[in-house]
User: Which sequence fits this backbone?
C-alpha cells in the first residue's frame, strides 16, 4: 500500500490481511500500520503515532 502520488519507495507499506480482515503492515523504515479492511477493500488503518488513515479501493 502507498499513498496516491507518493513515489518514494520508503513510504510503501507491505503486509498481510488475515481472514478476519485485520491488517498488519510495515515499511522499510520500520513504521507500522494496523487496522481492518473489509472484503470490498474499504477500511481504516492506524499508525504507531495514533494517526488514522482511510483505505479505499482504486
Assistant:
Amino acid at each position: 500500500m502507498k499513498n496516491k502520488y507518493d513515489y518514494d519507495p520508503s513510504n510503501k507499506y507491505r503486509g498481510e490481511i488475515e481472514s478476519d480482515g485485520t491488517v498488519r503492515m510495515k515499511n522499510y523504515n520500520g513504521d507500522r500500520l494496523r487496522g481492518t479492511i473489509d472484503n470490498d477493500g474499504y477500511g481504516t488503518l492506524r499508525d504507531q503515532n495514533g494517526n488514522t488513515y482511510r483505505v479505499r479501493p482504486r
Observations:
- The longest strand covers residues 32-37.
- The chain has a mean pLDDT of 86.
- Residues 24 and 34 are 5 Å apart (CA to CA).
- The chain has no helices and five strands.
